[in-house]
């Protein structure tokens, strides 16, 4: 059994930087994800006057306090990162500052109305281009509290509202259509902020202070999922993936892999800074232990939204049909992931079909071959990288380097544990 550590959680890494920047005092962050997306957040905070050091395994950050950010003298470059854009929009609006948010072509096409609307309801002045993406400008205004009923199940939207309320020192209440990842809530509570969760309602009470924190970022379950899939497909020996976050709002993909027949279990369960963490053990599957297709239902989607490309690729090797519905959000991720997954699977010879809000994949054990178009989307690259590691498959990618967004060392780790 090979042991593996995946890089730090992306969602938690963004939040760790933002909350350290806004805290009153010195925060420490260990195990932060050093990837392009997190560099985008670091760059935006630096542009607003925070001395974020070069990212590394153990960094300390001097917070400027909830009112200490200053307007940047240039546009805020969010690169490829939706989390940077939407969470920082909440922070900028709450600060009463003005800013212009820019990003790459993929990010510029993604929907920002979902975050502009609640911020406007709090009194912010937000301007978007006609297509609703970037560049987005926010002009300084004083915010008031809000009760917001969100139409989309989005942790980024929820977090933007919570952060706007925190910084503007006004109460906010967010009603979600389905529960999404709650890292912001956990991290704010750990820093002395009063955040309440009651079913699908999250509220923040103003307190005018944010304590500094000391956080050890767990491994990203979304990154671990690629290796869980690899072992389940029998493309590696058994794997022990250490120190992975297993927040219930994030681990739907592990539950689905078990339903597909994978031998996956948790060991060494513990708490790390308010987040549950474990080692994930996956016994090798494949011919000896074939996987079967499953139905993934709309209520499961928020807990595995980022893992659907990987699950689609695993489904391509499972017996029978895998059906996903209620996942229309996939169309507005770093690429249209429904189309990207289905088109690429078909190119490789897999029987796959697009649905408006999901897809159907019929698995087979035929050897797969062809060239995958990633659309610069890190999770498309890694999902098909896993499928390409199955013995007998010949799969190439147009842009393997796009994994740098969330997992810069992915190809090295894959080469180390895959069967040759
Ligand atoms: C994230 C929330 C999710 C997820 C993204 C990270 C976060 O996006 O897909 O990768 O850190 O809050 P949405 O909030 O748009 O669903």
Topology overview:
Elements: E1 2-5, H1 10-22, E2 26-30, H2 36-47, E3 58-62, E4 76-77, H3 82-95, E5 99-102, H4 105-108, H5 113-121, E6 125-127, E7 136-139, E8 146-149, H6 155-168, E9 172-175, H7 183-190, E10 194-198, E11 201-205, E12 214-216, H8 221-232, E13 239-245, H9 252-259, E14 264-272, E15 275-282, E16 295-296, H10 308-315, E17 321-324, H11 337-347, E18 351-355, E19 358-362, E20 369-372, H12 378-388, E21 394-397, H13 410-417
Parallel strand pairs: 1-13, 2-12, 4-5, 8-9, 16-17, 20-21
Antiparallel strand pairs: 2-3, 5-7, 6-7, 9-11, 10-11, 13-15, 14-15, 17-19, 18-19
Helix pairs in contact: 1-2, 1-3, 1-7, 2-3, 3-6, 5-6, 8-12, 10-11, 10-12
Pick out its properties.
420 residues; alpha/beta; UDP-n-acetylglucosamine1-carboxyvinyl-transferase, Chain; four-stranded mixed sheet; 13 helices; 31% helix; binds shikimate-3-phosphate
Return residue spans where pLDDT drops below 50 for at least 5 consecutive residues: none
> Rough shape?
globular
What do we call the CATH topology of the largest domain?
UDP-n-acetylglucosamine1-carboxyvinyl-transferase, Chain
- Count of spatially separate domains: 2
What fraction of the residues are assigned to beta strands by DSSP? 15-25%
Q: Any idea what the CATH architecture of the largest domain is? A: Alpha-beta prism
- Sheet with most strands: strand arrangement: 1-13-15-14
The structure class reads alpha/beta
Q: Which value, in Å, is the CA radius of gyration? A: 21 Å
Number of strands: 21
Count helical runs.
13
Ligand species: shikimate-3-phosphate
Q: Using the coordinates above, name the CATH class of the largest domain.
A: Alpha Beta
Largest sheet: 4 strands, mixed
Instruction: Estimate the mean pLDDT confidence.
Output: 97
* End-to-end gap: 15 Å
CATH superfamily of the largest domain: Enolpyruvate transferase domain
Helix share bin: 25-40%
């Amino acid at each position: 059994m090979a042991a593996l550590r995946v890089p730090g959680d992306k969602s938690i890494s963004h939040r760790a930087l933002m909350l350290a920047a806004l805290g009153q005092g010195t925060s420490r962050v260990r195990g932060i994800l050093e990837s392009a997306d997190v560099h985008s957040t670091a760059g935006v905070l630096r542009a607003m006057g925070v001395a974020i050091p070069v990212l590394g395994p153990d960094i300390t950050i001097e917070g400027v306090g909830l009112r200490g950010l200053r307007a940047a003298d240039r546009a805020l470059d969010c690169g490829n990162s939706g989390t940077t854009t939407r969470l920082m929009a909440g922070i900028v609006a709450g600060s009463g500052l003005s800013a212009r948010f820019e990003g790459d072509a993929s990010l510029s096409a993604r929907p920002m109305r979902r975050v502009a609307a609640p911020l406007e309801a709090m009194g912010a002045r937000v301007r978007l281009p006609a297509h609703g993406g970037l560049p987005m400008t926010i002009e300084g205004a004083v915010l008031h509290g809000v009760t917001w009923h969100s139409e989309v199940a989005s942790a980024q939207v929820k977090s933007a509202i919570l952060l706007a309320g925190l910084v503007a020192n006004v109460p906010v209440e967010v009603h979600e259509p389905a529960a999404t990842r709650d890292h912001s809530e956990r991290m704010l509570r750990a820093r002395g902020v009063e955040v309440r969760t009651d079913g699908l309602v999250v509220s923040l009470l103003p307190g005018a202070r944010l304590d500094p924190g000391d956080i050890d970022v767990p491994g990203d379950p979304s990154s671990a999922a690629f290796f869980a899939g690899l072992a389940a497909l029998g493309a590696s020996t058994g794997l022990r993936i250490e120190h992975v976050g297993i927040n219930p709002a994030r681990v739907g993909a592990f539950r689905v892999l078990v339903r597909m027949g994978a031998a996956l279990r948790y060991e060494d369960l513990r708490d790390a800074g308010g987040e549950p963490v474990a080692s994930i053990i996956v016994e090798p599957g494949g011919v000896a232990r074939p996987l079967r297709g499953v139905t993934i239902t709309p209520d499961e989607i928020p807990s595995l939204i980022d893992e659907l490309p990987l699950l689609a690729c695993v489904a391509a090797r499972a017996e029978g049909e895998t059906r996903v519905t209620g996942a229309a959000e996939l169309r507005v991720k770093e690429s249209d992931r429904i189309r990207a997954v289905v088109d690429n699977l078909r190119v490789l010879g897999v029987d796959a079909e697009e649905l408006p809000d999901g897809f159907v994949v019929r698995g087979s054990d035929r050897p797969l071959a062809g060239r995958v178009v990633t659309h610069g989307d890190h999770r498309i690259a890694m999902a098909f990288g896993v499928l390409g590691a199955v013995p007998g498959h010949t799969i190439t990618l147009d842009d393997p380097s796009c994994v740098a967004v969330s997992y810069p060392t992915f190809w090295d780790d894959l080469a180390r544990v895959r069967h040759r």
